[in-house]
Every structure is written in structure tokens, then in C-alpha cells.
Design brief:
Blueprint lengths: L1 E4 L6 E4 L2 E4 L2 E4 L4 H6 L8 E7 L5 E7 L7 E7 L1 E8 L10 E7 L5 E4 L3 E7 L4 E7 L8 E3 L20 H4 L15 H9 L1
Antiparallel strand pairs: 1-2, 2-10, 3-4, 5-12, 6-11, 6-13, 7-10, 7-12, 8-9, 8-11
């Protein structure tokens, strides 16, 4: 298993060891011990499974605010997605910055997203499935989203008219949201140590 940092400190790409032969493949999709050895020691309590029927379906940008913030590990198990993560921690040196990567059933990559970041994805193929782990249970009173096309963030999705839910279509701009993440330098130092 290999863990690689991205341009946003704390956001990590996880590449599991994949064993392929004439029958197919095998991989450990999650190992708390191996991830802890690599500096990811969160306890995950819920697994979610999402299906998007059509290419061009955009889900995001989602997060749960404090006190029910979630860390996530996301992987695509069918099709391909453009996965996007945005730093929404006020005061952070990378506030409103974003990274994107392709996750697919073929590349086996996963992405680790700590609390304090919004997450979204665009299906690049029909019949996309993603599975993701969360460090806290879904809490409707803390469930939030930010408008996918917020100009202050400026994500390059590569699409002008995605398929959206009403919730995502009517999401507020980050500046109008009640996001309550505050960047703390000590937390950042700890993230760089791991």
C-alpha cells in the first residue's frame, strides 16, 4: 500500500497492493493497521455506497459541519469519476483551494479526505458506483453542501450543465454558508508529521 500527498496538505491518495492473475484481481480495500503505519489512524464507523446512472452526474460539494464532521476514504468500484476536494477551513493557507483526481474501477485508487474539506465528484461514465468510509454517522442536522460552481472556488469540472439534485442545484456559496471549520496551525503541524 502506498500513500501519496497531494497539493492540499492532508489530502492523500491511497494505492492498495493489487494482485492480478488470469482469474481477476484481489486487494485489501481497507486495513486499519496498514493505514495507521502510514499515518492515517481514524476510526471509521459507516460505509456508504453511491450509484450514478448517467455520465455527467455531479454530486457535491458536500460536508458535515462540526460537531459531526467526517473524515472519509473514497473509492470508485465501477466506472470512472472526477473526484474533487476543497479546503473550507477558514484561515487555512489553502482556503478555497481544490484538488481533483480520477478515481476508477481500473486504477484502484482511493482518496483520504480529513474533516474540514468539502467533497464532490462527477461521473465520467454511465453506471458509476463509489464506496466510501466515514468517521462519523450521517447527521442530517449537520449535513451541508456548497454550490458546485461557486466562483470563489472555481473548480474546473469540465462540464457546464451537469445532472444535479435539487439540494446541490440550490446549495449556497461558501461565503453564504454556515460552515464552521477553522484552520489551526497546531493541527496542520500534526498532519505533516503523520
Amino acid at each position: 500500500m502506498i500513500v501519496t500527498e497531494t497539493q492540499l496538505p492532508g489530502i492523500r491518495i491511497i494505492e492498495p497492493d493489487v494482485f492480478v492473475d488470469n482469474r481477476g484481481f484481489f486487494l485489501e480495500s481497507y486495513s486499519s493497521a496498514k493505514l495507521a503505519d502510514l499515518g492515517i489512524a481514524d476510526a471509521f464507523v459507516q460505509d456508504n455506497h453511491s450509484f450514478s446512472r448517467k455520465a455527467g452526474t455531479l454530486r457535491g460539494l458536500h460536508y458535515q459541519r462540526e460537531p459531526r464532521a467526517q473524515t472519509k476514504i473514497i473509492r470508485c468500484t465501477r466506472g470512472r469519476i472526477l473526484d474533487v476536494i476543497v479546503d473550507i477551513r477558514e484561515g487555512s493557507p489553502t482556503y478555497c483551494k481544490w484538488v481533483s483526481m480520477e478515481l476508477s474501477a481500473d486504477n484502484f485508487r482511493q482518496v483520504y479526505v480529513p474533516a474540514g474539506f468539502a467533497h464532490g465528484f462527477l461521473s465520467l461514465t454511465d453506471d458509476v458506483e463509489i464506496h466510501y468510509k466515514t468517521s462519523d454517522y450521517f447527521a442530517s442536522d449537520c449535513d451541508r453542501c456548497i454550490l458546485w460552481s461557486d466562483p470563489a472556488i472555481g473548480v474546473c469540472w469540465g462540464i457546464e450543465n451537469p445532472i444535479l439534485s435539487d439540494k446541490d442545484r440550490n446549495a449556497p456559496l461558501l461565503c453564504d454558508s454556515d460552515c464552521n471549520f477553522i484552520w489551526e496551525a497546531e493541527t496542520a503541524k500534526e498532519m505533516h508529521k503523520s
